[in-house]
Design a protein that fits this description.
- This protein is α/β, with parallel strands linked by helices.
- It has one domain: Aldolase class I (TIM Barrel, Alpha-Beta Barrel), CATH 3.20.20.70.
- Helix content is 38%, strand content 19%.
- Strands 1-4-5-8-9-10-11-12 form an eight-stranded parallel beta barrel, surrounded by eight helices. A two-stranded antiparallel ribbon has the order 6-7.
- Helix 2 crosses helix 3, helix 3 runs parallel beside helix 4 and helix 4 packs across helix 5.
- It is globular.
- The two termini are 39 Å apart.
């Protein structure tokens, strides 16, 4: 076995071209999904303080943004909706004339080649901000399932390629799969937020989606960040119920979870590079504490290196220019 000085690992690090030649993990824009927030109205492009470069947009402005994104080579987006009104039963989530449904119809007509994914959850649509129906002060798992199924079907009918349940109710993937199949949408894929942790890194998103809980927190249904074996159980159950893709969220604090899921299962794995991960790099870069591009590329490479097949990231548009 060769040892130093015959073996010198620095030889292949000497130039950028050499480093590129032996690079193990590469970023491809086709592997990234841009989250977008759609709101009621016309001509609205409302920047978000906690997510620099990201905005709430009305359907007309959203179409302009998507057109620009596609010109950069971005091919996939994930839609989140902010309804005109909220209520206890989250009726705006499954309204055929709801905000996401209108956005889907518009984007599908104008951009037939765009991959349209939608968030399927109730938190943006409930008056209390929780991800399901409240009974006796708690989220009622089984009552919530029917509404999630209705939401998924309404998205599929409006043009979604894939629905992405993020609520963390037990049994929701099976319920959604049955609801889609029973209504003729057996080709609509399910990207399940299978290992979604109750994370501190979601803060800026809650401003963007206007979904902060009015009371309590989501630890009763989202996962404990201390657990990884439980994540594997969640993933396995979602696969058994019909998930086409499983997701780990958040990404950077859960690189070990992504790796564990990759080693156990063969289906595609997504990871969500969440708002707090993005915002803290943006804030540090704004203060001159680090180089945003280098930090972002290093972060996204780490997520891919851990085993994610595709990544949902707020850096997708900037990544398109960097690559």
């Amino acid at each position: 076995m060769s040892t130093f000085p015959a073996t010198r690992l620095r030889r292949l690090r000497r130039t950028g071209a050499l480093r590129g030649l032996v690079r193990e993990t590469r970023l491809d824009l086709a592997d990234f999904v841009l989250p977008l927030f759609v709101c009621p109205g016309d001509g609205i492009d409302r920047p978000l303080e906690g997510l620099p470069g990201i905005a709430q947009r009305s359907v007309d402005e959203l179409a302009l943004e998507v057109g620009e994104c596609m010109s950069l080579g971005i091919s996939s987006v994930l839609l989140f909706g902010i309804p005109e009104e909220k209520d206890e039963e989250a009726s705006g989530a499954y309204d055929d004339d709801g905000i996401v449904q209108r956005a889907l119809q518009s984007l599908r007509e104008e951009f037939p080649g765009l991959v349209l994914l939608t968030d399927v959850c109730l938190c943006e649509y409930t008056s209390h901000g929780h991800c399901g129906v409240i009974r006796d002060g708690e989220v009622s798992n089984d009552e919530t399932l029917e509404l999630l199924g209705r939401t998924a079907v309404s998205h599929a009918e409006a043009g979604a390629d894939a629905v992405c349940p993020s609520d963390m109710m037990d049994g929701r993937v099976g319920t959604i799969r049955s609801a889609l199949d029973d209504t003729g949408h057996e080709q609509t894929a399910i990207v399940a937020y299978s290992a979604k942790y109750a994370s501190a890194f979601y803060g800026p998103f809650r401003e963007a989606a206007e979904s902060t809980p009015a009371f309590g927190d989501r630890r009763g249904y989202q996962m404990d960040p201390a657990n990884v074996r439980e994540a594997l159980r969640e993933v396995e159950l979602d696969i058994q119920e019909g998930a086409d893709v499983v997701m780990v969220k958040p990404a950077l604090p859960c690189l070990d979870v992504i790796r564990a899921v990759r080693e156990r299962f063969d289906l595609p794995i997504a990871a969500y590079n969440v708002s707090g991960e993005y915002a803290m790099v943006k804030a540090s870069a704004a203060r001159g504490w680090l180089d945003e591009r280098q930090a972002a590329l290093e972060s996204l490479t780490a997520i891919k290196r851990a085993g994610a097949d595709f990544v949902v990231s707020y850096w997708t548009k900037e990544l398109a220019r960097w690559l």
